[in-house]
Specification:
This protein is α/β, with parallel strands linked by helices. It has eight helices and 20 strands. The two termini are 15 Å apart.
Length: 325
Amino acid sequence: MRRSSISVKPLRLIPDWELVGPVLLGWSPRCGRPGLTSGVHNGLRDHLRASGREARFAAPVVSAGAIGPNFVQAPSLKDIWLRDFCGVPALDEAGEPCMAKFRYRPSYLPLAEAEDGDAAAHELATALKLPVQDVHLILDGGNLTHDGRGTAICTTRILDDNRPTAERELRELLRRSCGINKLVILPEEPGDATGHIDGMVRFLSPTVVLVGSYPATYKEGHCFMDGVAECVREQLGPEYRVLRLPNDHPEDVLYEGIPSAVGNRVNFLRAGMLCMMPAYGTPGDGQAMAVLRAAIEGLDVCAIDGCTRLARTGGVLNCMSWVAP
């Protein structure tokens, strides 16, 4: 694996709809979660294969009976949330695929666990033969969504994690290193310990943005997400179409201090023109599928059933995956 600091010419971050490489899915027996993810893994793998995509499982140790081309070994891997510590798929100044690696130092994790995540990302990059380009900024992958053309959205967690660095310096660093010329910074969703954007807002295409919505019966969340949608419209302007994706009323459940993500559908897994949406067996599933299918012509949308147990640990499909360039 080649590793270097950012060169003079910025990287180009690759948006979800342009990613053509294998889809990595987190699989970690050390964290005791295979039982939570086995059904989800099977659903994702089957849909990926049907669309001609490759699914590979990221694991710390590959047992003798499981060794095969669909496993990628990362000895430091302690958890399944690949999206957050694996950086962002990108193209370097020569147009070659690479991993744009931000520093993984989330405030909600002990330092040792964060360091394991950093190490696992480099191990996975080595296994995938991807060079790593370091970006000297603290940022979880789950707190960045972008359009591939220089516009990105994150939450105020980026400011908190990088203090005392001034906001203008953060914006300039992202411009010089990753070609992000416009950064929209939104408030964190109340009660979300991670401060991530990928359960709130996602770019679906270069001109379409999805913003989650809650039922009116959940007044606090409903009003908050309406405010987020209005802010996105104002910040991005008429060039972008803002659609609302229905979520269910959230559970009042914590797992290791992280709130349940049950009912969240914004945290879908996107790989090229395939969109795999978490499903919970409620009427909102069908409503959200209809929004996604109508949003982009030719988008292959499928529901991944059985996500409730996984979501109860605080994340869903985007969180537990990473798509290689």
